[in-house]
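Structure in, sequence out. Go:
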């Protein structure tokens, strides 16, 4: 269940060097996947939520995986980060999944960015740019765009990290 994932603190975010190595690993995984037959049927693009969900469901971002799902997520990524990633090697024209899912945007409203008056507009425009790039790469696969998951105190009562802590303490 989604609420069993550990919550992330800003100290969990990768350093710039680590982020670069994650991106390079994703590019390598995509290159390997495009040479495989069959290619992954589903492509998941996003942040740590995407990566964790994929790992929970048995998918992988590992280049050696024979999984039918390729998950490309990096902890702490914003919509602008994902847009940069797909423009720089994580979405080549040779990758042909049957379905694409994009789960991104929660980090656009963290670490003070939520205070910007234009935060919702910037996030929406970045998501549109990501979808436009997916289409520009020639992918005709259906795209599932998830809603942005609430963060921290914004979670409805009974959901989120507090519910996970309560559930664990009740066990």
């Amino acid at each position: 269940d989604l609420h069993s994932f550990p919550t992330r603190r800003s100290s969990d975010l990768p350093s710039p060097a680590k982020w670069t190595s994650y991106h390079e690993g994703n590019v390598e995984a995509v290159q390997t996947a495009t040479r495989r037959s069959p290619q992954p049927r589903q492509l998941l693009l996003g942040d740590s939520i995407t990566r964790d969900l994929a790992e929970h469901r048995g998918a992988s971002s590992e280049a050696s995986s024979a999984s039918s799902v390729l998950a490309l997520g990096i902890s702490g990524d914003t919509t602008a980060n994902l847009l940069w990633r797909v423009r720089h090697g994580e979405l080549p024209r040779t990758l042909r999944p049957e379905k694409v899912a994009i789960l991104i945007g929660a980090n656009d409203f963290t670490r003070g960015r939520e205070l910007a008056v234009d935060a919702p507009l910037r996030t929406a425009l970045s998501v549109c740019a990501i979808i436009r790039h997916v289409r520009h790469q020639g992918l005709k696969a259906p795209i599932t765009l998830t809603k942005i998951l609430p963060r921290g105190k914004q979670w409805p009562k009974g959901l989120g990290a507090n519910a996970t802590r309560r559930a664990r303490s009740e066990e």
